[in-house]
Queue: 4 jobs
Job 1
Amino acid sequence: MPSQIYIAMLRGINVSGKNMIKMSALAQLFTELGLGNVKTYIQSGNVLFSGKSTSEQELAAEISAGIKRVFDFQVETLVVSLPTLNAVLQGNPFINERNEDVAKLHATFLYQLPDAGQLAKIDPGKFLPDEFMLVGETIYVFCPEGYGRTKLTNNFFENKLKVTATTRNWKTVTELVRLAQEMEAES
């Protein structure tokens, strides 16, 4: 099987002193799991790696189990391939259709598609000037007054949609794609 570039996004590590993991220890765990070219990006749980083409869900489960075994706490893990993350980067409607300020953009990655009925219960007009758009398993969030002031947080979407999610600012999404493309070019 050919090697593929993946990005793991860990939910809720190194936030407010909870679920603390040093990035060097996290990278070592990934290497021990047989994953290659492991690189971490910032302290909030972004790991780039190469591995045999396999199910992203299987990789996520394996990584979560490894974290539980080594660090003794549960961390939800989302794994996406480089093509998937690149599609998220290229598909942002707030950039493509409106050319909004990228500093005001975030992507909330859902671990599975939400139920359409749950999504329909959210009245987008109640959160203006903040806006969101669901495209596949990604919620694009535009917060003109900043993410720190929005109600459209990761926890909001998890509670309303009844799915696990993790959010990254647009700078992080862009940088993860850039780093993954560099890794791909080197291999």
Job 2
Amino acid sequence: MSGHSHFTESIEEYLEAVYRLEREGPGVSTSGLASMLGVAPASVSGMLKKLAGDGYLEQVARGEVRLTRKGLEIAVRVLRRHRLAERLLTDVLGMKWEDVHEEACMLEHAISARVEERLIALLNQPTTCPHGHPIPPADLSDPVRVGVPLAQLEEGTSAIICGVTDEVPEILRYLGDLGLRPGAAVRIREKAPLGGPVSIERDGQAHAISLELARMLIVEPA
């Protein structure tokens, strides 16, 4: 994009983060944005005020904001390109799924509309990123969400993994080593009481994972 400055990238990152917290997280908060973006809460407050003044956000309650259509258009565009870039890095370039988020954060600002169209065709119209998060529709409608946390399933239930909520590289690396990626078929063997581990079976192999990890894995009961 001609004249695309670091400040423009900062606006895009804020709007993308607001979208993710609005639709994929616990809701928009100053502390949540600060944590996601790695900046001080005071910086977040100042930027939110500016974004609201520029028409990208609107106040809905004390301390709460939501995207206007103007802000939504930018957030969806950036997040689409981010997740398409992640697909390119894993599916075409063969990068590991734990390594692509940071790379995609840089690429998302440089992808043009023309390149986005070519990526969609090259990648065969993907609907999710490698971690199972939906690629937002270009028409700004909310993406269809499927699945429940694996931790909610009863013993003996079979399911297909469709995503993981956390993109922390160490977590993704561990899950990848166990073969617990989107598309993998699993069965709940046993759930220990009092928050104990969950025993699952994949391809005939048993694995015990923590309850915390079982809450991060999103599955569709088979």
Job 3
Amino acid sequence: MTTITRSYRDHQTAQGVVRELERAGIATADISIISNNTENWHKNGGADDDAGDGAATGAGVGAALGGAAGLLAGLGAMAIPGLGPVVAAGWLASTAVGAAAGGAAGGLIGALADAGVSSDEAEYYAEGVRRGDTLVVVRTKDAHSATAQKIMDREAIDYTRRRESWKKEGWSGYDAEAPAYTPEQIRAWRTTMY
């Protein structure tokens, strides 16, 4: 099995990628999506320390964004340590939440590492989600990896350029203790990045 990981500037782009992967025959069970949902969390009355209300609101948002079939129909809200509230579906999201609930270190980073993603890349992807990106991760047989990679590369954020940009700003790695970005911070960051 090969693990392919890409990040996208917004959940709509990532959802299009997920739909295309499913149409290409990639099994829904082998696709995961994690999207920062901080804006909807705050807009709809959730609070970072009140997972119940926020999760219910996020689940409604996830269902509305998801569509009627495949992985996206299973989108739901959850809190991942270091990221706060996210809308997510798939095996990776379950692993990240399960690791955190069981006291394992790492949350999303640990789940990505378990899937074969290098620690440097895992930190980058976790930081991207914290800042408002949407992550899509596929595990696939080698025979399907070229197809999946071609689909996922079309609108993916350039990992190398983004990472270098962050380093110039002083970023040295993901900090699970850092507060989740507020909706205002995400909007401001997107304005400077895109």
Job 4
Amino acid sequence: MLPEVRLSEITREDVARMAEWLQDKEVNASWYGADEKGEPLHIGYTPSQMLDASEEHWQEVFHSDVRKVYSVHSANGDHIGEGQILIEAPLWEAQLFILVGRKELWYRGYGTAGLVHLLDLAFYTYNLHRAWVDIPEYNLPALHMCERIGFKLEGRLRGTHPKDGEWHDSLAMGLLTEEYVRRRARLMEPEPAG
């Protein structure tokens, strides 16, 4: 059974925690790595710059019709990560992003639960036809998570993720709404023993 999580509107405190989490090399490597100066990369916005953003800029970034950014919270209300949906409305598709920033919660189903919530939004709220993810080839736990959910390998993107001074490929994986609808109930069942 997956742990209970909820998605909510992001706050400045959440962005500050995200900036802090990304300072950890393991966390930023599982996300988008670091630039040539060692500064963590982030998709959609730069956490350190958003901490002091004007209200107008905050609204532009976090209330967009195209990029939806959510904080992920555990059942007890703790902020544990971030999820994003980048919508391509003319194509009826979205790219999804999920990060559990609290490493002590890795490998416990929180990323899967958060991604299921993002998929529910993509397919049931935004009525999209397809969702896809871009996973660094070295992030084997994320690849396995996406395979378990039902994502199918669609292609390899060459040299997309920097890590340890080298460029690594990533895997593009997609999921169609009808595939997700068939798998959704099974995702919430307990893992078989053994």
